[in-house]
Design a protein that fits this description.
heterodimer, A: about 400 residues, alpha/beta, Rossmann fold, 17 helices, about 15% strand, flat, B: about 280 residues, 2 domains, 14 helices, about 45% helix
């Protein structure tokens, strides 16, 4: 089997997002002799070209170790291969071909490659190459070698040093097993915009300037106007309840994505369910009455409530049902939620619990009947934003009416 | 061609040196990330110094637009000038001012271009630069001119991770993550700032510092500058090395967030014992 193509697949298997574009860059670099025919240099070179975030370094290390340790041959082989590769003439691809490569289906590449290999098309080439092809055009790509053509020496293993570095796994702590990246959230949130002229007058008003200049008998007079900015007002209400603790990181990401995006962002906290008070801080030391929220915040605020909506039905339905024993509420939580829904027509509920688990919790069903509920994930946020802009969403209705019906 | 080797006052790790040279040879931008205070910005200065090239710095702010780096067309000045006859306003060229990227392109010899803190700008900023960085040319519609780089500049881009960068942009870069200095390196750094620090105090402080940094679930790990401040306070306060070893005096200098503070305290109180799994991973989804 060829050495390096498998390494590529190993990286993909490990969840390192390597593209063929980058794979070709690595090939170009090897062609220019940048690996200096030794595995340690190869390790750093490959990492710099293929991996673009330190959070994936650990997975790279794992794949590297797994791959290069698995080869039970002396280091000369690997060095030979790299040396051989450097002799391969540089690959020149047109833009079109590059695009084709980007669009290639990996499985197809692999199948195609294996087929070519079985046909023995490349036997007898030291450090020869193999085909990454799209059927007929068969674009020459990546790496390969023929064990028969390489001298198998006995020496000690110089390539161990690179594997030892991989084995240390120094970047383990950087791997957060990224579930939801902030950028995707930001991109999703950026769709929530209504452009209005706001802020400083810093754009030239061409029409106005012409008009003013004419009135001024040709004496130049410039008129400035306000540029268009996102005028969306966003209100975030976040659950800090004990059961939400596990989702802190997720909620933080949403929060940081939102605060980078909106000029007018207000946020409050609640505990499990909303009653007559909201809090201005996570520690719940400063109170902000819900009634005041309804009175002072205009109805055009878009509201995103973040919570797991998981509570005892009594917390939602009963007077004095609040989970905190010291807290008395003379109005059941569900009434407060309905008041919020009435005052803010553009409100969604984001739930960090996976959608598949919703039907097991009764309070989720009850709340999803009041607010359109979406999963706190990139897809969920996207459909939620769509609802906030248009107030219509078919999947919301389907979800609450069908899959979440409680007798 | 001369290879980058590092300079007297900027010591590079072998892998960083290799990556810089790879980026130069491949003609790709080098994207540098790392915790604050690890010398990301200084790297570009060192490359310019070592290779004897001019450095052009483009500092990115939240309001920076990709176009600012190419050129600015001063239409207002031209309008004003049109009222008097002293200048030939039909010559638009004089109202076109090249930005930093444009400057790097027209330079008579190869320069080092530092795009500093690219993550400060708008979400789409890096994507807007993709084409210019790849083709090394751009078009000015006002004059009908195409600016083509005479020599491909060596591009160094730094990021503080405030925003995630788009994939298409990342694919075209060579990436280097400057690691946090290890104990040995840190010792040298501290000695530069506090030459008369007592040996044992430094040892204990470093031990504690790296212990805190190794804790799981910290929101913000203390950085070099905080360590330097901390050691200064320990020195001024006459704290003995034994005390540093036993407890954590002036922890507030290292840890700024309340939650982190509690976490460190809890770990310290537990001594060697482990914090229950559920608690430790409370902050991770």
């Amino acid at each position: 089997m060829p050495v390096f193509t498998d390494f590529f697949f190993k990286l993909r298997e490990r969840g390192v997002p390597v593209s063929i574009h980058e794979w070709l860059t690595l090939q170009e670099a090897l062609g220019k002799g940048l690996a200096r025919s030794n595995l340690l240099s190869f390790y750093y070179l490959a990492r710099a070209i293929l991996v673009k975030s330190e959070t994936y370094f650990d997975r790279f290390d794992l794949a590297f170790r797994e791959y290069f340790q698995g080869i039970e041959t002396p280091e000369e082989i690997i060095d030979e291969i790299i040396k051989g590769l450097e002799k391969v003439p540089e690959l020149v691809l047109t833009e079109e071909e590059k695009k084709l490569l980007d669009e290639l289906d990996l499985e197809q590449v692999r199948r195609n490659f294996e087929e070519q290999w079985r046909k023995g098309r490349y036997h007898g080439h030291v450090g020869g190459n193999q085909a990454i092809g799209t059927g007929g055009t068969s674009t020459q790509g990546a790496f390969g070698y023929n064990p028969a053509g390489v001298r198998v020496g006995q020496g000690y293993s110089r390539h161990r040093s690179a594997i030892q570095i991989a084995e240390k796994r120094r970047f383990r702590n950087y791997d957060k097993n990224v579930i939801l990246d902030t950028r995707q959230l930001q991109v999703a949130l950026s769709k929530l915009r209504t452009l209005l002229p706001l802020g400083e007058k810093d754009e030239i008003d061409v029409e106005g300037s012409i008009d003013a200049t004419c009135r001024n008998a040709g004496e130049l007079e410039l008129v400035y106007k306000r540029g268009l900015t996102n005028a969306v007002k966003l209100l975030l209400l976040m659950d800090t309840g004990g059961s939400m603790e596990v989702y802190t990181e997720l909620v933080n990401r949403l929060f940081s994505a939102a605060s980078a995006q909106f000029r007018d962002l207000k946020y409050f906290y609640f505990h499990n369910c909303i009653y007559q008070d909201l809090w201005k801080d996570m520690e719940r030391s400063e109170v902000f009455p819900t009634e005041e929220l309804l009175r002072t915040f205009e109805s055009d605020y878009k509201v995103i409530i973040v919570g797991d909506a998981s509570m005892a039905p009594s917390e939602l339905l009963e007077v004095n049902g609040a989970i905190d024993y010291w807290y008395y509420n003379d109005t059941p939580g569900i009434i407060w939620l309905k008041r919020i829904a009435e005052h803010f027509p553009y409100t969604i509920w984001l739930n960090p619990i996976r959608r598949t688990g919703w039907r097991f919790v009764r309070s989720i069903g009850l709340i999803a009947n009041i607010f359109p509920m979406y999963e706190l994930s990139v897809e969920g946020l996207e459909s939620g934003i769509k609802y906030l802009l248009t107030r219509n969403s078919n999947d919301f209705n389907n979800l609450t009416k069908n899959s979440l019906s409680f007798g | 061609m001369k290879r980058f080797e590092g300079t007297e006052d900027y010591i590079v790790s072998p892998e960083l040196r290799e990556n810089v040279n790879a980026a130069i040879l491949l003609g790709r931008p080098l994207l540098v990330k790392g915790e604050p205070g690890t010398g990301k910005t200084l790297l570009a200065h060192a490359i310019a110094k070592d290779l004897g090239k001019r450095l052009i710095v483009w500092n990115i702010k939240s309001t920076t637009k990709a176009k600012d780096g190419l050129y600015v067309y001063d239409a207002v000045q031209r309008l004003y000038d049109s009222r008097f006859q002293d200048k030939d306003v039909s010559d638009i060229k004089q109202y076109i001012k090249l930005g930093k990227l444009g400057e790097a392109f027209v330079s008579e010899e190869q320069v080092v271009l530092l795009i500093d803190e690219i993550d400060k700008a708008d979400l789409e900023f890096p994507n807007d630069l993709l084409n210019e960085l790849e083709e090394m040319s751009f078009y000015i519609p006002e004059t009908g001119e195409t600016i083509v780089a005479k020599h491909r500049p060596i591009v160094v881009i730094t990021s503080n991770n405030e925003k995630e960068l788009p994939d298409a942009f990342l694919r075209r870069c060579i990436f280097h993550y400057i690691e946090f200095p290890d104990e040995e390196m840190m010792e040298r750094i501290v000695r530069v700032h506090h030459p008369d620090v007592e040996e044992r105090l430094l040892r204990e402080a470093l031990k504690k510092f790296y212990w805190i940094r190794s804790l799981d679930g910290l929101r913000k790990r203390p950085s070099t500058s905080e360590l330097i401040d901390w050691i200064k306070v320990l020195m001024v306060g006459g704290i003995s090395p034994e005390m540093v070893a036993k407890e954590l005096p002036f922890l507030g200098i290292l840890i700024k967030q309340e939650r982190d503070y509690e976490l460190v305290q809890r770990h310290a109180n537990l001594g060697g014992r482990r914090i229950p799994l559920r608690e430790r991973y409370a902050s991770i989804y």
